[in-house]
Amino acid sequence: MGNWRFEAINKEGKREAGTIQATNAKDVRRVLRARGLRPKRVMPPSLLEFDIGEWMVANGYSSPFGPKELTMFTKQLAIMVSAGVPIIQSFEILFKQEKHPVLKRAIKKIGADVGEGRTIAEAMVEQKGFDKLYCNLIKAGEAGGILDTILNKLAIHLDKQEKIKAQIKSAMTYPLIVTLIGFLVIWGMMVFVVPQFVGMLADTGKDIPAITQFVIDVSDFLGNYSIYIVPALVVGFTLLRAYIKTPTGKIVYDNLFMKAPIFGEIVIKGNLASFSRTLATMLGSGVSLVDALDICIDTIDNGVISKDLTGVKKKVIEGKTLTEPLEKIEYFPPMVTQMVRVGEQTGQVDQMLEKVSDVFEDEVNSLITSMTKMIEPIIIVVLGGAIATILVAMYLPMFMAAG
Fold first, then answer.
1. Residues 157, 135: contact at Cβ < 8 Å?
2. Mean pLDDT of the chain
3. What distance lies between CA 249 and its chain's CA centroid?
4. HEC string for the chain
5. 161 and 248 together in one domain
6. With contact defined as beta carbons under 8 Å apart, do 54 and 7 qualify?
7. Statement to judge: residues 120 and 230 lie in one domain
8. I need a surface site. Which of 152, 171, 282, 343 has the fewest CB within 10 A?
9. Calpha distance 164→309 (Å, rounded)
10. Which residues constitute the domain of residue 76?
11. Is there a domain that residue 324 lies in?
12. 94, 125, 148: which is the final residue of a domain?
């Protein structure tokens, strides 16, 4: 966004000049025509006035804002609405202080749309980054006159949901990185270190032990075929990722991951924590159960759980209680379904689901801690054992020759 200079002809045929704040020349010409002016010359802003962030957003070069930026925006908007600051003024303040160019532009557009008479939810629907859950809760807050309460709930929900995702991601990433580094070290030893010993072993004239010969054979194989193995692994990984992105591949991948020891339990309970908290937030904000389930299905990243929840929604539409279809899902703990049943009987389903999400989050934390403690020594023993085997295999013939 910058001040574009223009020269134009008005309806009387007289020349006019001035400046217009716009993103590009096309917008300047559109504004001039709306004013009844015929543009003759449009000059871009000087480098000192040029907003590179706005230019990057307009041309699709800027990355979208994430949950962290959205959570901070929600918290700040909640504070201003609670303090009684007019909504248009709130958006103006947030626009001025926002650093992320994409969110900054979205805030500006939302504020402009609200100023023209649209609701906040209607304005947010048209902006990328505000998902179905967010927009529906804002809509419920506007309809019920409790926008500040809804914004506070949203901020808490986004914060906790992001923490759960970060914990699960950390649990998956750490062992993967350590294992990858370990394999790279072993590959380096087999390709570069072991061949240095082969000539020395040949000079001894002794028979090579079986374990040494095995290591040498593996070293030769990696040395000769690594140039083909690495591209094959890259192609295989790319094809696997493409398959996982398909509906069938997503189900297969998620199903396998859910059955993996420890990892599977973390994935299941992490997703169920997210589902419980989302559903609790929706129901507590006055959204109907069917609509809330529909939004929960969209927010769940796991294909298997999402498919099962779709079945739950169908049963609820048919007139069943929420508890009945949940009881038939084998990975849903009986204790949780009992809590949901009590919530249905007392009319406090949202409060029970909040407690359920707290239980799941605590269990995820406990599982991640236990897994980290257990997997570290396993990785060390396996990788250390592999390296020790290589070293023993190389030095064993020398010790035998010395003897």
1. no
2. 82
3. 19
4. CEEEEEEEECCCCCEEEEEEEECCHHHHHHHHHHCCCEEEEEECCCCCCCCHHHHHHHCCCCCCCCHHHHHHHHHHHHHHHHCCCCHHHHHHHHHHHCCCHHHHHHHHHHHHHHHCCCCHHHHHHCCCCCCHHHHHHHHHHHHHCCHHHHHHHHHHHHHHHHHHHHHHHHHHHHHHHHHHHHHHHHHHHHHHHHHHHHHHHHHHCCCCCHHHHHHHHHHHHHHHHHHHHHHHHHHHHHHHHHHHCCHHHHHHHHHHHHCCCCHHHHHHHHHHHHHHHHHHHHHHCCCCHHHHHHHHHHHCCCHHHHHHHHHHHHHHHCCCCCHHHHHCCCCCCHHHHHHHHHHHHHCCHHHHHHHHHHHHHHHHHHHHHHHHHHHHHHHHHHHHHHHHHHHHHHHHHHHHHHC
5. yes
6. no
7. no
8. 152
9. 20
10. 67-148
11. yes
12. 148
* Contact present, 157 and 277 (Cβ < 8 Å): yes
Please determine, for residue 291, whether its predicted confidence score (pLDDT) is greater than 60. yes
Number of domains in the chain: 3
Contact between residue 186 and residue 371 where contact means Cβ atoms under 8 Å apart: no
Pair 192, 220: CB distance under 8 Å: no
Q: How far is CA 171 from the centre of its chain?
A: 15
3-state SS record for 178-212: HHHHHHHHHHHHHHHHHHHHHHHHHHHCCCCCHHH
pLDDT one-digit tens code per residue, 60-93? 555 677 888 888 999 999 999 888 888 888 988 8
From 296, 269, 294, select the one nearest 280 (Cα to Cα).
296
Q: What is the dihedral of CA 138, 111, 88, 74, to 10 degrees?
A: 40
Tokens of 2: 């910058």
Q: How far is Cα 70 from Cα 107, in angstroms, rounded to an integer?
A: 11
For residue 236, what pLDDT band results from cuts at 50, 70 and 90?
A: very high
| CA pair distance 273, 103, nearest whole angstrom | 28
The amino acid present at 208, given as its one-letter code, is I
